[in-house]
Amino acid sequence: MLTATQKKTAQAIINIFETSTVLGDYGSVTVIPGDTGHLTFGRSQTTLGSGNLDDLLQRYCSNPGARFGVKLSPYLPRFAAKDLRLDGDRHLHNLLRASADDPVMRETQDVFFDLVYWQVAERVAGQFGITSPLGMAVVYDSTVHGSWKSIRDRTVQQSGQLAALGEQGWIGAYVQTRRQWLATHQRRDLRPTVYRMEAFQRLIDQDCWGLELPLVVRGLEISTTTLNATPPGCYDGPQPGSRTLALQASLARGLDVRLVQLGLSALGIDIKTDGIFGQRSARCIKDYQASQGLPATGVADAALIARLVA
Predict the structure, then answer these.
(1) Which residues are bridge partners to 245 per DSSP?
(2) Cβ distance 210 to 203 under 8 Å?
(3) DSSP structure string for 153-190
(4) pLDDT digits (tens, 9 = 90+) for 39-53
(5) Could you tell me if residue 236 is inside a domain?
(6) Alpha-carbon distance 253 to 238, whole Å?
(7) Which of 178, 158, 155, 179 is nearest to 167 (CA)?
(8) Is the pLDDT confidence value at 141 over 90?
């Protein structure tokens, strides 16, 4: 069994692979051309195509405390049907981004990804005889990224059994086998992901089998400090209406900005809910004010915010 810190470190490595962040990007929304998973969301990038995104959102919307449950619930039948038109639904994408500010969504993702990926990886690693924290991270990565079983069998065929090679020797052989498989894969989008195996190889070369902190993976620090920080891009304030929003030298960021952007998005306005009040946000506010016969200042006061934030 890994310690709690070793588990968080192993998960942080895969978070870095998936979303280039130590804690994971809970609001990450991506659609990669050619990706069979189609619309992808969350800390460990679960997909529409696999059906796991439907499962995640069903769990979230069933929680009475889910802040965005009412807004996301109408989409659930389409997620269940794997409606690929959701790939291009920009307002849905904005809803998903905004939901990351909700602690209920973050907790739902943590529990879901632990159940769907970590516990599965823990079980198959234990059955195969892999016990080291770094070895567990390698298995977890393949559970999230896919094809653990086929690459495991290929490694055994090409290099031998774990009992003969020892865990460290076998994991090293597995990483090289998977790297070659990724580099020559028929899917072009998978080939660049050899960086995952290159990162593991560096950890192997540095003898980091216990995942002792601090570590640097792909240029990002994994330490006690970074593991206990606030997830990137998540806001717990200020509350809507508690301040006026305007374009300024130091851009306003926060929950109130995100919810104003989401209100504009619900009206069909082309804006991304990134929680940052920049040039685009000011322009959209100005256009909205003009459409409503209001002074087109580009400044959102408490009254305007109340109109936009339901």
Answers:
(1) 300
(2) no
(3) HHHHHHH--HHHH-HHHHHHHHHHHHHHHHHT-SSTTT
(4) 999 987 889 999 999
(5) no
(6) 9
(7) 155
(8) yes
